[in-house]
Design brief:
The chain is of the alpha/beta class. The protein contains 16 helices and 17 strands. The structure holds iron/sulfur cluster.
């Protein structure tokens, strides 16, 4: 049933495309992504054929709309050779309009880049890379179960630079077992020395259903140590010319253009995204029908490839008003700029009065401040982000 109160205000936001590659060389003990350790050969051709069929099945939901960013994530997409990535991207372009300026990111893991040079991936259509460095300490990389050593990160970065791929992110973790503040800073300095355009600096957390959750590694820093690490790393990032625009995301400003991840910004602004591939999720606004839907695809690669009903979908639901409110704030509150008020009615179809009480409460508790066009998270709100987000539950 269309939600009559949403029809008047809801409009289709920018559209992104996420493509999931579900295989890794082996499973890291902290990882809760939909990634599966390789057993035998990857069925490249079958999987690309399935991805493109999956996209075709989704197209009726987004007729006439253009894709503004593509993110090929995983898993380990760099297990796919450049020729397979080229076939995938040209197959996408043949099926849906992709903006000429679209950011097209591929995740790559050091130690899995023996297939092709970055030049070949650039020629395939990739224009941004995200490298899963995680740490420059060989001891920590071993604890994290990563397949690479620090010299392979440096080799990958050298490969990016010699290919002229200046727009790349490094994923780096902090809060590692036994990690001191000075070690965390040394790790971060090593990442900065690689001159990435972007750093995702995030805390190691024990996610349910991971090996680490069942058996946490010894020596994890406590909350005070974590706060010290985070604060000192923030100072280092700022002094190196990076600006934080989201909880974990830092973009270098001392270069031409906008180095923020356009794809992730669209998630955080509660934009729309198609999701193709095993376990991929999508969020699509159907403005003409006054509703927003979420979809998930078959999670296991075998079930996905088998696809008994031709839709690849294992779950689909319309978001209720309470979901729209929570998800909108959950995402936009992650942004340093804060919540853009005008986005609320446009992206949820709901009037601002719907959340006036919760906003008032958050302001009275000193967690939010009114900056006119934006509601910004205060320093206190930033320190208690979970509490702030929970107000909108
Ligand atoms: S490489 Fe990344 S996606 Fe694969 S298991 Fe490790 S953390 Fe998960």
């Amino acid at each position: 049933m269309p939600q009559s109160q949403t029809q008047a205000q809801l409009s289709n936001p920018p559209l992104s495309l996420y493509i999931h590659i579900p295989w890794c060389v082996r499973k890291c003990p902290y990882c809760d992504f939909n990634s599966h350790a390789l057993k035998g050969e990857i069925p490249f051709s079958r999987y690309i054929e399935a991805l493109l069929k999956d996209l075709e099945a989704d197209l009726p939901q987004v007729w006439g709309r253009q894709v503004h960013s593509i993110f090929i994530g995983g898993g380990t997409p760099s297990l796919f050779p450049a020729a397979a990535i080229a076939e995938l991207i040209s197959g996408v372009r043949a099926r849906i309009s992709v903006s000429p300026a679209a950011e097209i990111t591929m995740e790559a893991n050091p130690g899995t880049l023996e297939h092709d040079s970055f030049t070949a991936y650039l020629e395939a259509g990739i224009n941004r890379f995200s490298l899963g460095a995680q740490s420059f300490s060989d001891r920590q990389l071993k604890t994290l179960g990563r397949i690479h050593a620090s010299d392979e990160i440096l080799q990958a970065v050298a490969g990016l630079k010699s290919a002229g791929a200046e727009n790349f992110n490094l994923d780096l973790m902090f809060g590692l077992p036994g990690q001191t503040q000075s070690q965390a800073l040394a790790d971060l300095q090593a990442a900065i020395d690689c001159s990435p355009s972007h750093i995702s600096h995030y805390q190691l957390t024990m996610e349910p259903n991971t090996l680490f959750a069942h058996k946490p590694p010894p020596g994890l820093p406590d909350n005070d140590q974590l706060a010290d690490i985070q604060d000192s790393c923030a100072v280092l990032l700022q002094s190196a010319g990076f600006v934080q625009y989201e909880v974990s995301a830092w973009a270098r400003t001392a270069r031409q253009g906008d180095n923020r991840s356009q794809h992730n910004l669209n998630y955080w602004r509660f934009g729309d995204y198609l999701g193709v591939g095993a376990g991929a999720h999508a969020k699509i606004t159907l403005a003409a029908e006054g509703r927003v839907v979420r979809m998930a695809k078959h999670r296991h690669p075998d079930a996905y490839l088998e696809d008994r009903d031709g839709t690849f979908i294992c779950e689909q639901r319309q978001l209720e008003n309470k979901d729209l409110v929570f998800e909108f704030f959950l995402n936009q509150l992650r942004l340093k700029a804060g919540v853009r008020k005008a986005d609320f009615p446009a992206r949820t179809g709901l009037p601002w009065q719907q959340v006036a009480g919760q906003v008032k409460q958050a302001m009275e508790e000193g967690l939010l401040t009114d900056q006119g066009e934006y509601l910004s998270t205060s320093n206190r709100g930033w320190q208690h982000l979970n509490t702030l987000q929970a107000i909108f539950l």
